[in-house]
């Protein structure tokens, strides 16, 4: 590891260890080590399409996709009491399956394993609400509701797949909480996102306007490269574990009040 990268890891760890309201934001880049392709990375879906190349191959069959060390690092930061909220663009369920608590997670584009109530916005697994895809289909918002299909166990509202397809609105409550936590953050850590799609690109701007430090960890360019307080262009799985180790050492050396 280069001396520069070591310095960046140390800097990130110091800010995170001293933070009062750390918010993390993740894009597809955090899941590439799990075998999922990202979109705008060097070998991403859109990068290859723009170069006239065929789509990237999945690194593992879909049934074998598991959370990787980076997902687990975020769970650890949450358990240390540091990571207050996690905003993700991913629909791959890897944050939840890594053990990250649902109540501290906003999945802006939904989650392929969860359904959502249009009335109260509660989230459920397909099994929890008795939604059999063989009978009721995927339950996308644009599908016509079928007579007798399961309703929300909380408010009896219509439940749909939480996955946000093109043209669907984003989940309002999760979006609102994401804006709120971004504005409240003192350290905003963007991981594996090129931050070009709205509202992804709004969150770091809102955080910075509120005086938060912006840390970027991403392969490839983002629109925030010039204004970020710290920009780390390296592998996520190479950077997050030493950051978390260093954070733990700093906390142990200086217990928080
Ligand atoms: Zn409901």
TrEMBL record:
EC number(s) reported in the record: 2.3.1.286
A GO MF label: histone deacetylase activity, NAD-dependent
Alphabetical list of CDD domains matching this protein: SIR2-fam
Active site: 109
Entry-linked Pfam families: SIR2
Deacetylase sirtuin-type domain sequence ranges: 2-250
Keyword Transferase tagged: yes
Residue ranges crossing the lipid bilayer per the database entry: none
Family matches, as SUPFAM superfamilies: DHS-like NAD/FAD-binding domain
Alphabetic keyword roster: Metal-binding, NAD, Transferase, Zinc
PROSITE patterns: SIRTUIN
Binding residues for Zn(2+): 117, 120, 152, 155
Superkingdom of this protein's organism: Bacteria
Protein name, as recorded: protein acetyllysine N-acetyltransferase
Organism, scientific name: Pyxidicoccus fallax
Taxonomic lineage: Bacteria, Pseudomonadati, Myxococcota, Myxococcia, Myxococcales
């Amino acid at each position: 590891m280069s001396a520069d990268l070591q310095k960046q890891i140390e800097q990130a760890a110091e800010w995170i260890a001293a933070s009062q309201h750390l918010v993390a934001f993740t894009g597809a880049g955090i899941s590439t080590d799990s075998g999922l392709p990202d979109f705008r990375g060097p070998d991403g879906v859109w990068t290859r399409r723009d170069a006239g190349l065929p789509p990237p191959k999945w690194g593992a069959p879909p049934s074998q996709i598991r959370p990787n060390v980076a997902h687990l690092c975020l769970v650890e930061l949450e358990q240390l009491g540091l990571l207050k909220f996690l905003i993700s663009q991913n629909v791959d369920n890897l944050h939840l399956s890594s053990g990250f608590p649902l109540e501290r997670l906003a999945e802006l584009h939904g989650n392929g394993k969860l359904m959502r109530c249009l009335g109260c916005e509660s989230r459920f697994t397909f099994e929890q609400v008795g939604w059999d895809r063989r009978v009721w289909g995927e339950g996308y918002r644009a599908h016509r509701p079928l007579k007798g299909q399961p309703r929300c166990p909380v408010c009896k509202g219509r439940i749909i797949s939480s996955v946000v397809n093109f043209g669907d609105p984003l989940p309002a409550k999760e979006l609102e909480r994401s804006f709120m936590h971004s504005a409240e953050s003192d350290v905003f850590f963007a991981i594996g996102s090129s931050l070009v799609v709205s509202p992804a690109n709004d969150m770091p701007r809102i955080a910075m306007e509120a005086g938060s430090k912006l840390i970027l960890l991403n392969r490839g360019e983002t629109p925030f490269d010039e204004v970020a307080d710290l920009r780390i262009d390296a592998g996520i799985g190479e950077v997050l574990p030493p950051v978390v180790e260093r954070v733990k050492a700093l906390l142990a050396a200086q217990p928080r009040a």
